[in-house]
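Objective 1b: paired records.
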Amino acid sequence: MKTEDWLTLSVIYRTKSLSSAAKELFISQPALTIRLQNIEKEVGCQIAIRSNKGLLFTPEGEYLSTQSQKIMDLVNETLRHVQGTSNEDIGIIKIVAPSTIAKYFLPALLLQYKKLSPETTFRLEVVNSSEVERAITSCKAYCGFVHGDYCENLPRLPLSTMRAYAVCKQPLTLEELKEMPIILHNTSKYSQDNVQLWWDETFHTPMDVRMNVKNLDICFSMVDSGFGAAIVFGDYYMDGHTLHALPLNHPDGTPFTRQLWFAYMEEMEASHCMHSFLKFMEEHSRSLDTGVIHG
């Protein structure tokens, strides 16, 4: 049933008169009669019966008409809320991000925005970097965070250039890294390929991969237990760990880095809630410290 149908039932039930209801709804009485008949046909029962005392509502009609008033109250309340808050930052923002970003980066960022816009609600889903663009273009999310060269077909903001580090239980040199067992963790294909490319151009020898674990936490645990070294991007992962980090450079001396991006659905800029969040991200895109190049 359409909103118009619920409104019709609500007015008829309140006035108990087709003629009075027709005047209030600004339609003719015959047109209202036809509308009521169509509603009865849709719900599959008789709603009201004409009598000398006016309209008598059947039990089903009583229930439908009572519900119609509740529905119209909800519709009106919803419209008042939306219209009254159209200039406020109220709404739900759907976000997708890889697990490392979700764990190490987003809590502080979203909390900062929550302080500016307490009424905003976030819905976060963890996906692989390669799945972020599809989630946004399919309207599963309004925006997302991604490592590396993904989401090229979407509007995106560069958030931080994260430097690569070799992490180990004890201090190490580049030459020592070359001979060490390597522990890999599940990350995007882009990052895996870039680590492999860096290794090949730096050492010209195969990487001695001893473990390939599910996530960064397990990777750090294995490194901390002395099973080898790992290569990660950004030093913000290091909070709470006593591991040693060696900044990595390309053979020409330039830092080995990976870009962190914020991508979003362009159509969502029309939403005041999303527009405000985008402005927030733009303002912070050059100041967010997520393990930017140090020295």
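Objective 1b, second protein:
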Amino acid sequence: MMTSTSVRQNTSVTLYFQYLHQSVAGVLKLFLYLRDRPSLPFFSLQLLNQKQAQAFEASAKQ
């Protein structure tokens, strides 16, 4: 017969493995998405960097 502490440990380990599996699956999906569309994320990243640079320049001028 299992004690309550071992049951609690088993559930936490199961939750951890579920979380690990979800995060690994998410990273894999993201990697596949980036591999299928190599130009789009890079382009959006460049746009984001430009906007950040413009905002920084505007705040520096004030």
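DSSP finds two helices and no strands in the chain. The chain has a mean pLDDT of 76.
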